[in-house]
Amino acid sequence: FNTAVPGPTNAATTVAGNLTASLFNVYSNPASYATPSHMVFGTGTAGNPANAANKSGGIWLGQTYSNGFYGFTLTIDSGYTMDISDFQFDGRATATGVTNYRVAYSTDNSTFFSLGEGTYANDSAWRTNICNSGVPSGLTGTTYIRLEGYGETSGGFNVDNVTLNGTITAIPEPASIALLTLGIGALVFARRRRGK
User: Fold this and answer.
1) What single-letter DSSP state applies at residue 171?
2) Is 81 strand, coil or helix?
């Protein structure tokens, strides 16, 4: 998700094959990805490099993970799995903005696991944040991704250039696995026979 190319948008700019990404949105209901709250795009020099998604309006003011978040979903095609290697984003916060962030994922939209956490310098400078602790593998179906901020008094939370890196792999079909097992068994049998 890059809000500067081709202009302010919350649609994914690049998505791997066999994977579908939802829009990158702001959600105020911690239990649901169904209804986005609002998304404000900064203009001029506010973004990094040109436009940024601005999460403001008081949803963060509870100073907890559960009062609102940036989020999107990834749907993996049947017959494929996804391994996440890291989550990157450019972020900035003002002196009264969020002091901490957390990136988390879930496969059931109920229990979330951390991909990484960090702090902000609160000096309005853009910094690239890379989260790669606890990265999951073998994901199937729908995966929910959240970027949460907390600890602010009244300021906003800006993000840009959001990237989730990983690999999509085809799951071998049962017939292929059976053929492979049969082939290995035949090789072992032939080798034993030659040894006698």
Assistant:
1) P
2) strand
CA-closest candidate to residue 142, choices 106, 104, 102: 106
How far apart are alpha carbons 72 and 149 in whole angstroms? 15
**C-beta contacts of 173-181 below 8 A and 24+ residues apart:** 173/79
**What CA–CA distance (Å, rounded) separates 193 from 196?**
5
> Taking Cα atoms as reference points, which of 133, 131, 75 lies closest to residue 107?
75
Give yes or no for a contact between 102 and 65, defined as CB atoms under 8 angstroms apart. yes
The per-residue DSSP string of 95-148 comes to TTS-SEEEEEEESSSSS-EEEEEEE---SS--EEEEE-SS---SB-SEEEEEEE
pLDDT tens per residue across span 141-176: 999 998 888 777 776 677 888 889 999 999 887 665
Strand pairing of 113-119 and 53-55?
unpaired
Cβ-contact 122, 93 below 8 angstroms: yes
Interatomic CA distance for residues 145 and 176, integer angstroms:
33
Please list, in sequence order, all residues whose beta carbon lies within 8 angstroms of the beta carbon of residue 43, skipping any fewer than 6 positions away: 8, 51
